[in-house]
Amino acid sequence: MLEANMRAAGKLGESQIRLRYSGFILFAFRLFSVGTSLLFTLMITRSVSPEEYGIYGNFGDVISYFTLASTIIPFWVTRFVARGHSSSSKTGLVANLSVAAISALIYLFMLGWIMSAFQISREYSIFYLAGASLIFAVHFSAVLESILYSKRPETLGFGLFVFEISRVLLGFLIIFIFRLGLIGILLSHVTAILIQSAFYMRLLMREFMGNIKWDYVREWLKGSLLNIYGIISGRILTLANIFLFIYCGELSRAYYGASSAIASIIGYSSSLAFALYPKLLSGAEAKDVELSLKMVLMFAIPMSLGAIVLSEEILLILGQSYGPAWRALIILALNMLVSAPSSVFDSIISGMERLDADAKISYGGILRSKIFLLLTLYYVQAAIVTPLSYAIFSSTSLDALTAVVYLATISTIANIIITLARYALAKRCLKFSIPWTSIAKYLGVSLIMAIILYLLRTPARLTITVAKTLFGGLVYFLILLAVDRETREIARLVRGKASRMLNQIGLMEK
Questions:
Q1: How many CA atoms lie within 13 A of 464 on its CB side?
Q2: Using one digit for the tens of pLDDT, what is the confidence trace for 205-234?
Q3: Per the structure, how many domains does the chain have?
């Protein structure tokens, strides 16, 4: 009876999740993080050589294989907490920290072989050795975020703010003042994650008062087959980056890393719909999906066109060495524009799935689930990108720029195909409409903005490029406010919520 009451209370709380409020809180801080991320990237690119930046990119690729398990337990924790299953938070924390310890030990055991396989100089041994701390930090943060995501998703925005401020301040001290190079970059990043995790722990202390329920862990481990199935496809896809590094050199990986870092900012627009998933877990309607698509595309479309028009200028402010990669950035910007609405389709497919609704997971249910079908689509994507990349890079002598353009093009074509398939699958889970009228408005106004930015071509300087970017955004929203009623409603919402943001932070800390 007590369990039933707790689950009912959980569902009541989640029904009060506000899509616009939660989405705009996270998006606002992600927009803030654009500046801080650019500042941190500038610290990196101006303190290490392009070749070392390529090493840094390869390090990230390698570490990703040892943090692939970091989201397995959190995936189920979000679903169990959202549905009100007691003690899910404490059980998830203990379980994920155990996974972190195992993953870090495996990484340290394999490190010598990894460095030999990639022919990485021994002078980077300490840098790669310190990667074990990043593995632990990522696992720790992931499980805390999964708990907050299911209950108060907007708090992840405040956590992002804490992380970004910490990383920039630490980066300035460690990278610029102490000039510790790659090891300083890693130290800044790991410490910022731990500070962010401490912020989350302060908000969640009451969640860890119950007992550990090992029955949950058994169900999660059973369900982990689904997660592992999805993770493997992602790692297969990452092999394309590794092939780029092996066959085309550090410079090509640096070009691709710089272009991807800029293009990924467009993906921040998907955070506007990040509250859709927990809302779907506890009950949502088609209108919530349509609202989420509008919010995402309202920002993704102008951000993509802005990145295309300013592609060379943006890369040049990272350093003169990166300007030639502007073609790759244009292609990756289009790739991210396609990815933005597909994140909504993923939320529909995962959020409408009921295989774990009763805290029990069966192998048959996993194989029959829509999530399994969704994850299979990623294997199709990997089957397009990875073998084709290997065939091209291993059999043809390409310069760094051409190789990067090839990989960006292959990835974008594959992403378009898979996005269409995800849309079809999402429609089978929940009937919803695409807001074509709103999309037409966003695209038309974005084209006006892009033309103005193109005509205002200026030298590539940080202050000028940032000013042009802000000016382009101002033009876009002023015109959109004039022609779109929903944008005016959103503006009123943002204005009202902004005045209460500091009070909200104070309430959360209490």
A1: 11
A2: 888 887 889 999 998 988 888 888 888 888
A3: 1
